[in-house]
Amino acid sequence: MNDPSTERVSSGSPYEQTVGFSRAVRTGRHVFVSGTAPIWPDGQVDPDPLAQARRCWEIALDALAQLGGSPADVVRTRSFLTDRAHEAAASQAHGEVFADVRPASTMLVVAGLLDERWVVEVELDAVLTRR
């Protein structure tokens, strides 16, 4: 049974329906943003790792904002890279958003992501300072 105080948002990803997940879920002051890939509304994916990382954070932060949060509320991030060579781009994009916030953060190199065009995917957790 769903808790009526739990809020969910969708980013419109086709995977949300088929897999059965929400882009982000808020319960109380806690927000959890699912793994977020660098997809543009038209389905395109920019091959540039920096552009991908920036797009991932744009989507994830938009979901957070829809649930009342901001980058200042983020307490943990995770970045998944398909190659160590993308670390500098992923780090730059993360720093552009979180340099002053400094959440706990993990960056992993993985064997691959769901779509072979993706070289970066991100997640975040936040604790909202206001209800």
Automatic annotation (TrEMBL):
What SUPFAM superfamilies does its record include?
YjgF-like
Annotated signal peptide:
none
Q: Which Gene3D superfamilies match?
A: RutC-like
Q: Which InterPro entries match?
A: RutC-like_sf, YjgF/YER057c/UK114
- Protein name in the entry: RidA family protein
What organism does the UniProt record list as the source? Nocardioides agariphilus
Its lineage reads: Bacteria, Bacillati, Actinomycetota, Actinomycetes, Propionibacteriales
